[in-house]
């Protein structure tokens, strides 16, 4: 009811109040006085676990800071007087203790918190505190439950505790009870039997409860069933164990879960179906569970209000139950009350609009008390769903509560009225920089406060004109909206708040950035296993922004590392495998925007192996094999390969049996007898073969006579009186039984002989005492313990061959040319060949050249001809022209060549000559070239002359005109003067006979450099002959040095002892002081150097002077003083002492001029190595 005088005022101020309502939602700065506001509170239904502490939250703000108080069950709760309860500092949160004298359940009640200061009181929701419980089931001894077979049964669970625990049933073996259409658990935890069977008494039934809050499981005492049986279980009509009756009402709140249950009883077990009046059950929204006994709608809407019918049907009858589902709605805000901030003498209003089913009732409260009991306020009036304020005054600030409630719940909201007189102020940061993306809707924030509400205007770049209209819009909270930011919108913006009590200003700088966009986004990629996969991700972005690239795999961060490498513009995956398959997302993020694109990587791999191999339909020689194909891994399976392993003949070795198209998974395998089979299957696609499947079970076939015929039967004689019959062995899979052997049959061809046979386990059989090269009919068959197999076709074999008896006759040569000749001969009779004619063979050799000065090598060659005519002939090729040849022929069978024919001679005609032996071009003078060549090694006839052509060349290109010179056969050089010394020429020489020009040889002239001389004076150090000579010389020098060293070590062959007439045996190896006597070494070495034995030497010594004179002739005649060894051994002349190696050979020259040198001196003087050193 509107007070007197308010009607005209509302008509005038109503539209303005609508505007103010949106403006006055701004936040009051904390340093200004304001009524309390609840900032945090517990849920309306507050369920707590005592183990985690019992507390009820309540926090608020205000200026001055509010004081907290509580109501319990609608009455004032004096917290300080309860020693078990405390209130947290600077908060209204209650902490509740418990112990022996205070149980947690004693705190269960309804609580409401109030925050109060000088300007009003804010109220929280009414909080219902409930304590979580998981009590133990009471100890009880349950008597066995007796029930008749065919009757229904309900085993109650009734779990204790709060909240309701999750229940499940186990048997005496602690295994879940098997549930089906007959036995199932209801939503209340009870176990329902549509009818009981005798087997139900074989186990116990225990209900178990899982408490989520405490993470514990408790078990109820088990039920034991005693099923009473009768001869025949009577069929019964269906009935419902739950629900009762034919109809019921089900109320559910919108957004909550709806569960409808129909659990029938009856025998046979009834079938449950669901129907919705006015339409079908929406299967996409509705879930039918528990063997069709439960209908579940996870989140209800108003459209779910309807009649739902469940039917239960068996052979006896059909019954129905109708659920009248009513969806109710808790109260919800259409327009929630908001704080009102006004200056003195200003107007305003608070709106509270709510909806629900049924429609909620709205109640206003002031500082937690009903408004009708509050102190009257002439500036306040309730008008429908709004509180209207007019000409408010300082001191009338308060907190108002709006409570909207219906039968199913309530909602409560606080909104204060704060009467202030404050100058405008800016609440946001100063000189803020805002970066935005081009073409995006942009908001420039400018939070402000003032009472009365200031007028806010925006300006750009210091211009006096305000921003309004077009793409600019100022929102009630002061934010400037730019509908589509462009590059020209960059700049400095100013927001100015003005009221009657002051002015405030703030600045914002706007930068417009280029948007990030993909230039090469990820694309769907297919890669083969083991290859390199590259997923592109390239984008263009503003260069002034930092950018990060992130990769996700299947919406989770990709594990980057050596397997997944993040490159600059792509993701590389080397050696991909199947685990790499998935969805890859590339996220490119800057500080302003973020784009992402996804692509799927498909890895094509070889198939997965087939599984579940099963054998069926067995028969004598076939069986059906069935398998389950594995995954094709994105490449269709082309075929299946069936392999087998034979335990008897090839254990452990898998062999291919047959292949089948990729669309089959059940085939009939054709098998062979006497095999113990085991099968496996391999799938094949374009990538490769799968791993083999797990082998099937064994399958054994029975034995039978062989089916196969021995192949490749042959009869060949290796001697003139025998024949070997051979054949190819049967495969292991062709044996068909044990003890495989072969029966060999033979007889002479075109004779009336009986077939002879022999049995063998080998693959060949020999026949002896045969005539030479006689044909035989041969056949072979296999046999085993089950019988004989089929015979092979009859083939013709021959016994052994012998050496031919005759040679070809009347051998002649005709049509002789330079390199070919035709040979004719008379054939050898077949009877003389002593076997099958294999060939006629011509042996020929070049005996001499028709040029008397040319020597040739006698290399015998041969050529083979095959002819069965009576006057055969052939062409002998590869002959040398203008030569004398000799030839003879033989005939050959498969084993031997016959005797040679008479040797004949023939000549070849002239041919064209070969290339000249060499061609050199030398620069004798600066402007003169000298060309020289030699006649061909193979003239192939009488040389008539030479042709020389030359032409100026430029690099590898021919540039000049051809010049031709001809020369007689005795001229082999040519000189020319070239006009330009820098010009190069190419010379070509060919030799001529009467038949024409022969093969060419070419050479180019040298450059005008030292090359001319380098060509003339060949570097012999690189020539093979020089290297060989040097090696031989070095080896010779080494041998000489070794010989000289040995001779110096032993003193040479000088017979010192004999010259002194000292007997050899009288010399001691050592003197008195133990020093070594060189004569002992001389004696030992002399033995091996004398040209006669020692016995002969002794006889020579006995002869006296004749022997002495012969030995003295080996050295120059000298004085006895000079020859004495005593002079060298006892001191003598110092110039005659031993040299470094102790040798005294050559020291006998004494004081005379030595005309001969010792071995050392001669070796050094004449050594080739010394000559080389001197050259060096």
Automatic annotation (TrEMBL):
InterPro entries: FN3_dom, FN3_sf, Ig-like_dom, Ig-like_dom_sf, Ig-like_fold, Ig_I-set, Ig_sub, Ig_sub2
Entry annotated with the keyword Signal: yes
Subcellular location, record wording: Cell membrane; Cell projection, Growth cone
GO MF terms held by the record: cell-cell adhesion mediator activity
Fibronectin type-III domain span: 609-704, 709-802, 807-911, 912-1012
Pfam families registered for this protein in UniProt: Bravo_FIGEY, fn3, I-set, Ig_3
SUPFAM superfamilies (alphabetical): Fibronectin type III, Immunoglobulin
GO process annotations (BP): axon guidance; brain development
Cellular compartments per GO CC: cell surface; growth cone; plasma membrane
Signal peptide: 1-25
Span list, region Disordered: 1087-1176
Listed transmembrane segments: 1025-1046
Coiled-coil intervals: none
Record keywords: Cell adhesion, Cell membrane, Cell projection, Disulfide bond, Glycoprotein, Immunoglobulin domain, Membrane, Repeat, Signal, Transmembrane, Transmembrane helix
Ig-like domain: residues covered: 36-132, 138-218, 238-326, 331-418, 429-511, 515-596
Membrane topology: Single-pass type I membrane protein
Composition bias type Polar residues, residue spans: 1101-1110, 1159-1169
Family of the protein in this entry: Belongs to the immunoglobulin superfamily. L1/neurofascin/NgCAM family.
Function recorded in the entry: Neural cell adhesion molecule involved in the dynamics of cell adhesion and in the generation of transmembrane signals at tyrosine kinase receptors. During brain development, critical in multiple processes, including neuronal migration, axonal growth and fasciculation, and synaptogenesis. In the mature brain, plays a role in the dynamics of neuronal structure and function, including synaptic plasticity.
Assembly and oligomerization: Interacts with SHTN1; the interaction occurs in axonal growth cones. Interacts with isoform 2 of BSG.
The name this protein goes by in its record: Neural cell adhesion molecule L1
